[in-house]
Amino acid sequence: MHAFIPEPKRIPFFLKFGIWFSEKITGKTMLPARILAWYPKAAIGSGIMEALVAHEDGAMNKRILKLIRMTASYAAACPFCIDMNSHEHRQHGITDEEAASLRGDYESVNTFSEREKLAIAYSRLISQTPLKFHPDLVEKVKTAFTEREFVILASTAAQVNYWARLIQALGIPPAGFGE
Description:
Elements: H1 13-26, H2 31-36, H3 40-51, H4 62-75, H5 79-86, H6 96-101, H7 114-126, H8 135-144, H9 147-169
Helix pairs in contact: 4-5, 4-7, 4-9, 7-8, 7-9
């Protein structure tokens, strides 16, 4: 399986470091970064956004952020995103049962906290088209999360959605993180 277009034969020098760095971190060929080299402004903007992703911030720990990323990946039906964001879920304290439930009925999994269930529900909403935010759910999320956490939740899910749309629009296949 190949992307819709090949990566450029010559990648601008100033992008090579960013690509090298992302591939060193992931241990995979990062075809999205390579294909974005066709339009360096998109590559730089995307790289900056990715460099500023939330990794852990107070109660927004690695587990809840991973749940948000996985949920948004499944909701956007992006094979590359699912592959990348579900990889090593156990290292973030997410069981196989919990991971599988993000594709469907997560409500019945009793190991999720109420905050996690709200984050999952909100991540699903952010990933749907058209966007429809029920006031009751918004109020529950606002009650369970600080304003800062609310922004982290929304921006993390939105970032996955950005990548999902871009990666799918370019026809980029999974990188093999789960192998």
